[in-house]
Amino acid sequence: MIDPDKRKAIYSLYTDGMGIREISRRLKISRNTVRAIIVLKGNVPDLPRKDKISLDSELLVQLYDQCEGRIQRIHEKLREEEEIEIGYSTLSAMIRELGLGQSQETRCDQVPDEPGVEMQHDSSTYTRSIGDKKVRIIASLIYYRYSKIRYLKFYRSFNRFKMKCFFHEALTFWGYAAKQCIIDNTNLARLRGSGKNALIVPEMEEFAKGYGFEFVCHEIRHPNRKAGNERSFYTVETNFFPGRSFESMEDLNEQALQWATVRMPARRVSKTRLLPLKAFAYEQSYLQTVPPYVSPPYRAHKRDTGQYGYASFDGNFYWVPGTDRAEVSVLEYSNYLKIYHKRKLLGEYDLPPDGVKNQRFSPKGQPAPQHQPKYRKKPTDEEEKKLRSVAEEVSAYLDFVLKEKGISRHRFIRHLYALQQKITAPLFINTIKRALKYRVADIETIQRIALLLMNEGNYTVPFVETDQEFRTRESYLEGSTADEVDLSRYDKLTEDNDG
Predict the structure, then answer these.
(1) Long-range own/partner contacts, residues 88-94 (CB < 8 A, 24 or more apart)
(2) How many CB atoms lie within 10 A of CB 448?
(3) Of 397, 400, 375, the residue nearest 388 (C-alpha)
(4) Looking at the domain that runs over 4-39, which CATH code has it been given?
(5) Within 10 A of 161 (CB to CB), how many other CB atoms are there?
(6) Which of 37, 348, 364, 415 has the most CB atoms in a 10 Å sphere around its CB?
(7) What's the pTM?
(8) Do 142 and 120 touch, CB atoms closer than 8 A?
(9) Residues 421-450 pLDDT 10s
(10) Domain 118-289, CATH homologous superfamily name and number
């Protein structure tokens, strides 16, 4: 099929005096085709299909309902019951033309790129290697539609509070906000409804007003309404992740910040050759300036002060200055904490790196506290590592027993480690092999197995060597000149027991 533009070009060349043979040679089209196009004066022939089959639309709708939308069955019924021979693809096309089985959706609006009007936000989940572990992470990305600049950050989890923290961090970094932020119908910002009928959560609506923008939900199944943001996630997958390694979440976000705010703004957009940094400089006069006095978002938590002056939060302990054990308010910000008592600031603390738990922290500028928290957990990582190094059988047993329900992990490991310290290595290994064979997950039963093996075999208690030079130590010499200890009081106890 020769397209209309080429047909017009052929006819134009012919009217300008070029011969049919020359036109055929240059455009690589047969001379007969050139002649046919010239006869039609370059127009596309409007010839009706001779084999076109006409079907009653009411019949098709009726069969579609009867056959529950199964086109293959409709095709069979037309051939067998109605004696109508029709191709399967032709039948499918007719059903599509009638709109059967298709959702009656409106086309997504195409909005022009206007400076200062729109930014887009979305999140996407990935599984990446951080350090030596595969970790599920959530990428949050904001995208300015006109200038194409971005801000990217990764989280272990993402909720409404972290969404507010992300917007504050991104908008204060760039210093400007567009009038609208296009989002999907996420419950983090949407209260109910969808698309143009969506009602934004009052908390998020008030939050957005503080930065000079409003949230707008796109219509359901219209993700292309924020195509710039979707394309940005594709760029993250194809340009940011490949060839990079990350030691920690902090390292990941540090690289993401440099990539999104330094490298990408200085790289021209492939199709339009637009330079985001220059476009953003032009767009700034149309954007809403972020007020310098805007307060960062925070969450308030109530905590009791422990016996040794600690308030616990998110698995860690924060020492509270003073001597009272009163209830305090812990204000959680994006990357730091503030502790108040009766509106008085007692201390400010940097949040620890991702994954740090069971640690204690002092306020900025103050030394570490002297005492440990009362309820600080006592992990058994070192004991477990030593047990696994004894033998492969011990490591296999730990893999089995620590998966069992009802097992107190740390208590069990401490008792097993204590048993390993009391008996010889061969006896301990044989005990664990038998415990694994019979799926024993009770520490008392393991101790009885060890006792049984000791009675059956020739196991002996390991000999403990004593350093004979203890007699020359100063403490021993001082004790040697002391008076003998009177133990006669124990003789009476012995006599009573014998009696």
Answers:
(1) 90/53, 94/55, 94/60
(2) 12
(3) 397
(4) 1.10.10
(5) 15
(6) 37
(7) 0.60
(8) yes
(9) 988 888 999 999 999 999 998 999 999 999
(10) Ribonuclease H-like superfamily/Ribonuclease H (3.30.420.10)
